[in-house]
UniProtKB/TrEMBL annotation:
<protein>
    <recommendedName>
        <fullName>ABC transporter domain-containing protein</fullName>
    </recommendedName>
</protein>
<keyword id="KW-0547">Nucleotide-binding</keyword>
<dbReference type="GO" id="GO:0022857">
    <property type="term" value="F:transmembrane transporter activity"/>
</dbReference>
<dbReference type="InterPro" id="IPR003439">
    <property type="entry name" value="ABC_transporter-like_ATP-bd"/>
</dbReference>
<dbReference type="GO" id="GO:0098796">
    <property type="term" value="C:membrane protein complex"/>
</dbReference>
<feature type="domain" description="ABC transporter">
    <location>
        <begin position="10"/>
        <end position="234"/>
    </location>
</feature>
<dbReference type="GO" id="GO:0016887">
    <property type="term" value="F:ATP hydrolysis activity"/>
</dbReference>
<keyword id="KW-0813">Transport</keyword>
<dbReference type="InterPro" id="IPR003593">
    <property type="entry name" value="AAA+_ATPase"/>
</dbReference>
<dbReference type="GO" id="GO:0005524">
    <property type="term" value="F:ATP binding"/>
</dbReference>
<comment type="similarity">
    <text>Belongs to the ABC transporter superfamily.</text>
</comment>
<dbReference type="Pfam" id="PF00005">
    <property type="entry name" value="ABC_tran"/>
</dbReference>
<dbReference type="InterPro" id="IPR015854">
    <property type="entry name" value="ABC_transpr_LolD-like"/>
</dbReference>
<keyword id="KW-0067">ATP-binding</keyword>
<dbReference type="InterPro" id="IPR017911">
    <property type="entry name" value="MacB-like_ATP-bd"/>
</dbReference>
<dbReference type="InterPro" id="IPR027417">
    <property type="entry name" value="P-loop_NTPase"/>
</dbReference>
<dbReference type="GO" id="GO:0005886">
    <property type="term" value="C:plasma membrane"/>
</dbReference>
């Protein structure tokens, strides 16, 4: 298989994740291995509760595995502290949360521009311009002054997608990005994620929506805490 680059942008090796509750230990990931290259869209499906969001949080550096190694651009990030992880995340990773995580006291436009505040070189006018462009792409420009609670679920989802892309990340992680969308918006989100992939970015989509299988360069099922490769575009 021809790869856009010689090494993966992100790679997970022998990842396990256990959750400890009062009465028991839940083992969610059990020797999970995963690599993604620039220019690829990887799609992960699997039963509810199989560990997809858990895995996304680990890939997105929002949570740490119980054991195993993570490599970003061929460098282990095992020893990175919280500050360096946050910095890597804000420069390189865009995350669409399953439940959006929009900040309730910020308007749609302010939510989208939020990741740009971490980029000191981007001045206020450019911040507004980039945010408005993203909102236009997602068909949410007219609603830019609305607050999350004034938006429908699908509208909030589109604002969350705009926010994940505004800082031009190399790795986009989308957890059920079309869960609340009608067919037309679903199609435009798929097209947008495809276009981003063609820009030599890497996109990971976790979904219950079978349509994504047709767009996947690599398609996995999460089964018993492991990723099983179902198909891969040669
Ligand atoms: N903080 C936590 N403490 C204890 N158990 C947890 C925690 N977070 C997740 N789990 C458990 O881990 C398992 C995997 O959860 P996860 O959210 O990753 O599933 P998922 O595949 O994303 O499911 P869905 O398709 O419903 O979004 C579930 O059984 C869940 O109960
Ligand atoms: Mg989930």
């Amino acid at each position: 298989m021809e790869q856009a680059s010689t090494h993966p942008i992100m790679s997970l090796r022998h990842i396990t994740k256990d959750y400890h509750t009062n009465s028991e230990v839940v083992s969610v990931l059990n020797d999970t291995n995963f690599s993604i290259y620039k220019g690829q869209m990887v799609v992960i499906m699997g039963a509810s509760g199989s560990g997809k969001s858990t895995l996304m949080n680990i890939i997105g550096l929002l949570d740490r595995p119980t054991s195993g190694d993570i490599y970003y651009d061929n460098e282990t990030i095992h020893n990175l502290g919280d500050e360096s992880r946050t910095s890597l995340r804000s420069s390189s990773i865009g995350f669409v949360f399953q439940d959006y995580h929009l900040l309730p006291h910020l308007s749609a436009e302010e939510n989208v521009s939020y990741p740009l505040y971490l980029h000191k070189e981007i001045k206020s006018q450019e911040r507004i311009q980039k945010s408005q462009e993203m909102l236009k792409q997602l068909g949410m420009y007219e609603r830019r002054h609305h607050y999350p609670k004034q938006l429908s679920g699908g509208e909030q989802q589109r604002v969350a997608i705009a926010r994940s892309l505004v800082h031009n990340p190399d790795l986009i992680l989308a957890d059920e990005p079309t869960g609340n969308l009608d067919k037309q918006n679903e199609e435009s989100i798929i097209e947008l994620l495809q276009a981003i992939t063609r820009e030599d970015k890497a996109v990971v989509v976790v979904t219950h929506n079978e349509i994504f299988q047709h767009y996947a360069d690599v398609f996995y099922q999460m089964v018993e805490g492991q990723l099983q490769e179902v198909s891969s575009r040669a």
